[in-house]
Amino acid sequence: MLPASASRVENRFSWAGYLLGFGLGGFFDGILLHQVLQWHHLLSALDGPAFRDLRVQVLADGLFHVVMYVVAAAGLWLLWRTRDQFARPGADRWMFANTLIGFGVWHVADSILSHWVLGIHRIRMDSEIPLVWDLVWFAVFGVAVAAAGWLLRRGAGPGTPSGGARRHATSVALTLAVLIAGPVAALPPPDVKTAMVLFRPGIGAAEVFSAVAAVNGHVVWSDASGALWAIGLPDTSKARLLYTRGALLVSNGIVPAGCFAWSGV
Questions:
Q1: Distances, alpha carbon 47 to alpha carbons 51, 53, 58, 119, in Å
Q2: Average pLDDT value for residue range 15-38
Q3: Is the pLDDT of residue 175 over 50?
Q4: Cβ–Cβ < 8 Å for 122, 148
Q5: Which residue from 116, 103, 114 is spatially nearest to 143, judged by alpha carbons?
Q6: I need a surface site. Which of 25, 67, 220, 252 has the fewest CB within 10 A?
Q7: CATH: 3.40.50.150, 3.30.70.80, 3.40.50.11810, 3.40.920.10. Which one for 194-262?
Q8: pLDDT at residue 180 in the model
């Protein structure tokens, strides 16, 4: 067992990674989504005259970055205080793993608090189904990155031979690939022109035809129950509008399952 003083040093070294990752996650979110892509600002979902003023939104983004600077500075201070830990085998992988965990935790916390509890913004404010973008971002940059950090950290740490961390490299890579590939694969390719649509119970044929007309589509096929329809979509970007007209599931294949969900007909 490590002496109490050594244990405190290792804890501070770990927290340096967590805080740096958390701060980098905030900067990644703010710079990419607020400024480069301009999908949202920090307070985009709030209503009121003040929040319609772009200067207020930019000010809120700036204050958010100030907070991230404070978090990152705290991480750097702890890293400087425990810099001697880098002389120990495995310390670099331990720091990188904890940084990944902090980065992922930021996106998990941001999704839960900002998107769903407080509702101050969503990933894409202009989306008809913002929850889809929220969940993809939550899975790819939150859960997947934090899980990769946790797996990379197993068997590693200051004083641990580097071979212990290397044994987990393959599992980390495979886990990260699977967690990222799932949400990405759920997005349809732009050239698929037929969607399989399951409407909620109680939707009549007249309402279905109205929904089809709203997306400039045409009926290809329907099952005997009248709930499952194959619909041709000249403009696939309008497929999401079907969710506002009673659709429970909108796929893009005659067999809406697995890899066939985005197959052409």
A1: 6, 11, 16, 11
A2: 95
A3: yes
A4: no
A5: 103
A6: 67
A7: 3.30.70.80
A8: 60
